[in-house]
Amino acid sequence: MQNNQKVGKVTLGRSGNPPPPVYDSYVRENATFFSLVRNSDFQGILSSIDSVEERFNKVYHYDWVFANDEPFTPAFIEHVTARVSGSAHFVHIPAQFWGYPPWIDLDKAERARKNMKENKIKYGASQSYRHMCRFNSGFFFHLPVMKNYKYYWRVEPDIAFKCDLFDTDWFRFMRINKKKYAFVLAPLELHMTVKNLWRSTKMFFSENPDLLHPDNSFSFLSDDNGDNYNMCHFWSNFELGDMDFFRSSAYTKFFEYLDQVGGFYYSRWGDAPVHTLAVTTLLSKDEVHYIPDTGYFHNPNGNCPRDDAIRRARRCSCSTRFEHTWSRGSCIPKWYEVNELEKPSYGIKFKNVHKFAENEDADEYDDW
Fold first, then answer.
1. Membrane-spanning residues where (predicted)?
2. Span 307-332, mean pLDDT?
């Protein structure tokens, strides 16, 4: 029997599925899955939930938070609630977290979208995509329901886990090992979408040098001692994070600085490079963790363990033909080199295969 209870703009639900008896007394971490979804993402998020539950959460029964800039439909709430093994929370994002801030020049933003559309840049013409990136960069962890949790694990529609992950409670791993951010994929960003982001980041730290962690991972971001951004970034569609970090004064100051610059709208800054620039500069190397061998797939990239023993132990159903982690265009090799980690036998040397445009930081939109 379902028990849905509305509390303000948050709807609470529970599937009623009992946990396995062996885990009746398991003490879960203060953590939740988080998904930003639309009602139209219904089938895609059900597929993702089924994958996460089967490969991990059927053992631990962590909660889920689903957020939408529009109210969820009753059908969405009913069917999603029935699929999760923990409590489900459905949030209508408040207006102050979704939309243009007052300092944005709307005409200038429109010119930027038109320019990107003409240049066939993915999501370049979309307003909602920019609102989403800004929300994921600076606001999701401030939602009232999210303030009840310390850790989050982000899940998007149409993702899949092709290997079992329940041999480790990754939320507990984060706490015990004092990790504040974890990732699984690190591709190269589209350079056309991050115009002036590197320049703005360097300006921020020139004004706030005390915030640069002495044991940072800054060298992961650049191949020429900081002159240029090498486009390496952690793919945020699968990330685990400590929201105390994202709510910290250091991260807040960093985000607000970038937000005032306007790059979410005058360019198409994504939350993935923003998160990456933040955690590699504001945190120590030891506080950022790479999770290998997850069997995680999000088109067009994915991870599939190449070690046969791991594939058998984790019941992986993926093909290494689609493995992106140790391939050209992946920054995982760079992460290993920066952190002086021993690469697997099939590891390769990082080589940036990105084709950069000349004068990438040249002014294009007035002061852009």
1. none
2. 93
Q: How many CB atoms lie within 10 A of CB 338?
A: 18
Minimal CA–CA distance to 314: which of 180, 161, 209? Answer: 161
* Domain ranges (residues) in the chain: 31-339
Residue 367 confidence (pLDDT): 54
- Tell me the pTM: 0.90
pLDDT at 349: 84
Task: Verify whether residue 78 is a known catalytic residue.
Answer: no
Max Cα distance, the chain (Å): 63
Fold of 31-339: Spore Coat Polysaccharide Biosynthesis Protein SpsA; Chain A (3.90.550)
336-351 average pLDDT score: 90
The Cβ of residue 20 has, within 10 Å, a number of other Cβ atoms equal to 11
Cα dihedral angle (333, 334, 338, 340), rounded to 10 degrees? 10
pLDDT of residue 143: 98
Angle at the Cα of 61 from the Cα atoms of 58 and 62, rounded to 5 degrees: 130
Alpha helices in the chain (DSSP H): 42-52, 58-60, 74-83, 106-118, 127-138, 170-176, 197-207, 243-246, 249-261, 263-266, 271-282, 308-313, 332-338
Smallest CA-to-CA distance from 127 within 137, 117, 142 is with 117
- Quick check: 250 pLDDT over 60? yes
**How far are the Cα atoms of 42, 190, 278 from residue 275, in angstroms, in the given order?**
27, 16, 5
Phi, psi of 164 (to 5 degrees): -70, 140
In the set 239, 323, 342, 358, the catalytic residue is 239
Contact 306, 319 (CB under 8 A): no
